[in-house]
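Support request from a user on the community tier.

User writes: "When I paste my structure tokens into the form, the page sometimes reloads and wipes my input. The last time it worked, I copied everything first. Here is what I submitted, just in case something in the input itself triggers the reload:"
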């Protein structure tokens, strides 16, 4: 019913062992970078707990009454909690509803399962309310909290949950999985590195279109730095399409610039191995202190553009003008 991601195997087996021995906790915190399949794992576990005839390895059968209801989103012992709108918070009323749901006996006599995502969007009142529920956990119930930013949750809440930490799998696991899914002739190793080792994030970026877009932005940034492109025109190019992703790429390049500058003679892992030559050229022109300042500026630019109502074009122009001025003092 749910895709079994190979890098989840040992975590899945652990959960099954705990379930078999009656040691499954009431609350699990599924934490780790985006693109590792935390949500898929939470769904798989929720479905497995509610299925009436689970398969040998513990997975939901996909056929029984419970599985059919889950697929239709109408299983009475299952709840999803998410912000009402994208980017908004999870409110206390939503948590009160969940507490009431957990207080009642399961309609099908088994587990009651709540999947809450992203858990870092709980507002402070909702988090406090959830904490109370976790202090007196009701019978056979499981709360699955999913987040890429566990540090944003109150420590009191985190301490009530058992942590399931998701880490990027080794390339020996991730690369064959990606190779089986990507048909375009792309540099899959580089793609995985750019995605921070997260296979699902890599797969998402694996359209030739996005990969070409990244190349285009590299070229654009290079032209600005060498005085061949006006920063105002460059800012227009940067704002086209997925701005947040464009800016994440920018931060990744600046992280690599610092790595190259600080350890030029050591073998080490770059996040953008395919851009090594051009990054080397950029790093070579700038003093270490300057590289750290630019990294800071890139992070700030990403934060401002993705979390505030701001004039993105102006901020980008300022950032790109600064890139042009310092690298080419003679041209300004
Ligand atoms: Zn089933």
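"...and here is what came back when it finally went through:"
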């Amino acid at each position: 019913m749910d895709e079994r991601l190979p890098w989840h195997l040992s975590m899945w087996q652990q959960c099954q062992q705990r379930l078999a021995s009656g040691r499954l906790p009431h609350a699990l915190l599924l934490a780790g970078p985006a693109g590792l399949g935390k949500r898929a794992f939470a769904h798989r576990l929720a479905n497995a707990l509610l299925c009436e005839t689970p398969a040998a390895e513990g997975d939901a059968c996909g056929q029984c009454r419970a599985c059919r209801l889950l697929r239709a989103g109408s299983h009475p012992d299952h709840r999803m909690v998410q912000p009402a709108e994208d980017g908004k918070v999870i409110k206390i009323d939503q948590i009160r509803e969940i507490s009431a749901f957990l207080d009642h006996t399961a309609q099908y006599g088994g587990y009651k399962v709540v999947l809450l995502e992203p858990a870092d969007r709980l507002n402070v009142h909702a988090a406090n309310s959830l904490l109370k529920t976790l202090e007196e956990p009701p019978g056979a119930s499981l709360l699955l909290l999913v987040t890429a930013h566990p540090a944003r949750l109150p420590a009191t809440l985190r301490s009530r949950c058992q942590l399931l930490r998701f880490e990027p799998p080794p390339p020996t696991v991730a690369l064959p999985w990606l190779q089986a899914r990507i048909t375009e002739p792309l540099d899959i190793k580089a793609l995985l590195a750019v995605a921070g080792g997260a296979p699902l994030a890599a797969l998402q970026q694996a359209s030739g279109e996005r990969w070409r877009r990244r190349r285009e932005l590299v070229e654009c940034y290079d032209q600005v730095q060498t005085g061949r492109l006006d920063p105002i025109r460059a800012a227009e190019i940067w704002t086209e399409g997925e701005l947040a992703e464009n800016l994440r790429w920018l931060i990744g390049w600046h992280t690599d610039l610092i790595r190259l500058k600080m350890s030029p003679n050591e073998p080490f892992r770059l996040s953008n191995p395919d851009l090594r030559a051009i990054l080397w050229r950029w790093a070579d022109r700038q003093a270490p202190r300057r590289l750290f300042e630019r990294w800071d500026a890139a992070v700030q630019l990403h934060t401002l553009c993705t979390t505030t109502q701001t004039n993105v074009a102006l901020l980008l122009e300022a950032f790109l003008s600064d890139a042009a001025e310092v690298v080419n003092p003679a041209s300004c």
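Agent notes: The reload is a front-end session timeout and is unrelated to the input. The pocket of zinc ion is lined by residues 51-53, 60-61, 63-64, 66-67 (CB under 6 Å). The chain has a mean pLDDT of 90. Escalated to web team.
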